[in-house]
Structure formats: structure tokens, C-alpha cells
Structure to design on (420 residues):
């Protein structure tokens, strides 16, 4: 292989990275330019150009992909500025898939296959987002957001009431709950709890966390908004509740000496409720992880600004 | 420290690269001859930077080019009318910047 062969090889490799319409034109010019550069280099060295000299020249030009990138810059599939969010979403997908694939009712799912599908879907979404921003500069722009402690009193009251009425009441007395909510139009036998579940630690722990959650909303009402401690309390309570609900859906059958504790006496109710417990539990765990991430990365520029009345 | 100085200098030179290249293309030049002309004028530019820049300036409508295949095939670039206008505008802008920077730097010495 002589110097010209080396240059030909380089030019071919650069051209392969270029759009079809530009390839021949750029390759022709690049070959001529490299020939001039090599001739000048040989003249300066006082000897005929050889393979080593050509390789030294081309090393200065960079890898063919880099050289081609200077002639024609292709956009990244995922914008570099989106890398951070892409990784966060990928991690979230990994957590969801990991939880789902451990559910007894989802035993047929392939965790790794589902995760790859999620990654592919995320890549497509982020690629489309980047493409749209390049096509319509200014689209998907930044908008001001409220701080993470934002929770007006009204919303906190609503959250507290909803927590007390729905999960706490439903959990404490499911039959009465159905009777009251549906004004006696639905039979209540389907939601009758088993004796084992009624007296289980799982139920007591779930009830306790639900009441604590309502108490946290009450504290937000009193304080007039969230505080860093309520942020962390929310992480612990929602995370704990999520795990307990996942525990409802994936009973401790895999642990030696432990048996499945069905929630309802009715087999049909258990069949319907189990995936719901699992999905809600997984969602709560995911929300708790997201909140934990937000608390971990909480931005508190120092010194803190004094709150001024509007 | 020396590395930081080099980075600053590289950034500074990058900003005036287009103006330097346009200033040498009132007469037709091919890639290597232009690089030589710039180096002789005190503005050495890496070949990997200069040649793609010529294509970009042509794509932006500032340069015209034609192949000369009488001897060694070479592509010659020169300013077109739009390139002449851009060169004049950039030259004025550069002189303004020099005046501004001179004022700022002189003020720092006082």
C-alpha cells in the first residue's frame, strides 16, 4: 500500500459518512486537497511521499467520521441536552419493568424484553422531540413552574379529605364503604375481607401509613404549603404504601414457610383486585422514587430569599 | 495556565476565521493555496477546519467555486457579490469591535 492508496482509502471512508448527493463531490475535492498537503509535506521533508507520511497527515485530519462531520453535521438521535432526562426515564422504566416482572400475575412477561421495548420507545420519543425542536425552533420551550413545595391550602384539604374518604375508609370497612358509596345498589359480599388478611400485619401497616399520609396533608393545610420535611415524608409514605400494595399483589409465596394471604373471600374479587393492587403499588413506588430524586436534587440558592407578600 | 491561554486564543481566532478567509478570497484560491496565504498573513488554520469551512461558506451563498482540471484538478473559490457585501459588513463590524476592545483594555490599564 503506497501513500496514494492510503489517501484513497481515507477519502472513501469519509465519503461513506456523507449524504449520497455530496459523496462524490466532497471525495473528489478532498482527494485533491490531501494530495496537495501530502506533496507539501514531502517537499518539506525532502523525500518522496510514503505510507507513513500519508498516515501522519491523515491522523491530523481525524477519524473519517470526524472529518465527515465537519463537512456535513448530522443531528444526534437524542439531543445531548436531553441525555440527562433520557437516563432518568430509562432508570424509571427499569424500575417499573423490574417490579412488573416479579408480579405473580405477570409471570409470563419477559423483563429484559420489555425493558428493551421501553428503551426503544423512549429513544423514539426523545428523537421525535429533538426533531420537532429543530423543525420548529421555540416549540417545546421552557415555561415557568411552581416550586416543589407548592401546594395551596385548598388542594391540601382536598387531598386529605380524599385520602380519608377513599383509601382509609375503604380499607377500614370495605363493605360499609361500598354500601355508602353505591347507596346499597351493589352487593357487598364481594369485598368481604378474609379473616387472615383482616388480622395481618400487612393491613395494619397499610392503614397506619394511610392515616399518616392524611396527617401529612393536614400539616400542609396548617403550614399553608409544603416544606422540605413534607417532601421527604411524602417520599417515605408513598414509597412504603407502594411496597405494601405490591405486597398485596405479590404475596410472600416465594418465601419459605409463608403462604399467600388472599385479601378478599371471593376468588373473583381477588382475581380482579390483584393486578390493580400491583399496578397502583408500582405507580406509587415510582412516584416516590421521582419525589426522592427531586428532593435529593432540590435547588436552594443561598442565601434564601425572604418571602414577600404579593 | 498555558492550556487555558491556548483555549482562549483558539476561541478568539475561531471568531475571526470567516472574516480572515473571506479577506483572502477576492482573488480565486484553491484550498491549499488559501491555507498558505493565510499562514503567510499570520493566520495559520488547520486543514481539517479550513476545507469544510469553504464548503459551508459556499453553501451559505458567499462564495462561488469552479474546478480547474487543466493540470492537477483543483477547486478554486472566490467571493461572489453576496460574499463581497458580507466581507464589507464584517470588516466594519470588526473595526468597531477593535475600537470597543481598545477602549475597554485601555480603561483597564488606568
Amino acid at each position: 500500500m503506497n501513500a496514494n492508496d492510503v489517501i484513497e482509502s481515507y477519502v472513501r471512508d469519509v465519503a461513506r459518512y456523507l449524504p449520497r448527493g455530496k459523496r462524490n463531490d466532497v471525495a473528489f475535492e478532498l482527494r485533491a486537497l490531501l494530495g496537495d498537503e501530502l506533496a507539501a509535506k514531502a517537499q518539506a521533508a525532502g523525500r518522496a511521499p510514503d505510507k507513513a507520511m500519508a498516515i501522519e497527515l491523515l491522523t491530523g485530519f481525524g477519524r473519517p467520521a470526524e472529518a465527515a462531520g465537519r463537512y456535513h453535521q448530522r443531528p444526534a438521535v437524542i439531543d445531548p441536552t436531553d441525555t440527562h432526562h433520557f437516563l432518568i426515564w430509562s432508570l424509571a422504566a427499569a424500575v417499573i419493568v423490574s417490579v412488573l416482572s416479579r408480579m405473580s400475575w405477570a409471570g409470563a412477561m419477559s423483563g429484559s424484553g420489555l425493558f428493551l421495548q421501553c428503551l426503544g420507545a423512549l429513544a423514539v420519543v426523545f428523537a421525535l422531540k429533538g426533531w420537532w425542536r429543530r423543525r420548529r425552533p421555540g416549540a417545546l420551550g421552557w415555561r415557568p413552574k411552581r416550586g416543589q413545595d407548592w401546594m395551596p391550602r385548598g388542594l391540601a384539604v382536598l387531598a386529605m379529605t380524599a385520602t380519608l374518604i377513599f383509601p382509609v375508609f375503604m380499607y377500614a370497612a370495605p363493605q360499609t364503604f361500598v354500601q355508602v358509596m353505591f347507596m346499597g345498589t351493589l352487593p357487598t359480599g364481594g369485598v368481604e375481607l378474609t379473616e387472615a388478611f383482616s388480622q395481618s400485619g400487612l393491613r395494619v401497616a397499610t392503614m397506619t401509613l394511610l392515616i399518616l399520609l392524611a396527617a401529612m396533608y393536614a400539616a400542609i393545610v396548617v403550614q399553608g404549603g409544603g416544606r422540605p420535611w413534607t417532601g421527604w415524608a411524602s417520599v417515605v409514605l408513598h414509597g412504603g404504601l407502594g411496597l405494601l400494595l405490591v405486597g398485596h399483589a405479590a404475596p410472600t409465596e416465594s418465601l419459605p414457610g409463608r403462604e399467600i394471604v388472599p385479601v378478599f373471600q371471593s376468588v373473583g374479587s381477588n382475581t380482579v383486585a390483584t393486578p390493580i393492587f400491583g399496578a397502583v403499588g408500582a405507580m406509587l413506588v415510582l412516584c416516590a422514587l421521582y419525589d426522592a430524586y427531586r428532593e435529593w436534587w432540590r435547588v436552594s440558592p443561598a442565601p434564601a430569599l425572604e418571602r414577600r407578600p404579593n | 495556565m498555558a492550556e487555558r491561554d491556548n483555549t482562549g486564543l483558539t476561541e478568539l481566532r475561531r471568531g475571526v476565521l470567516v472574516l480572515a478567509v473571506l479577506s483572502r478570497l477576492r482573488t480565486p484560491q484553491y484550498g491549499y493555496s488559501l491555507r498558505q496565504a493565510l499562514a503567510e498573513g499570520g493566520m495559520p488554520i488547520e486543514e481539517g477546519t479550513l476545507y469544510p469551512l469553504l464548503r459551508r461558506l459556499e453553501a451559505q451563498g458567499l462564495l462561488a467555486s469552479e474546478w480547474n482540471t487543466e493540470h492537477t484538478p483543483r477547486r478554486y473559490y472566490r467571493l461572489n457579490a453576496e460574499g463581497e457585501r458580507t466581507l464589507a459588513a464584517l470588516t466594519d463590524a470588526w473595526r468597531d469591535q477593535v475600537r470597543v476592545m481598545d477602549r475597554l483594555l485601555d480603561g483597564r490599564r488606568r
Summary: The CA atoms of residues 108 and 151 of chain A lie 41 Å apart.
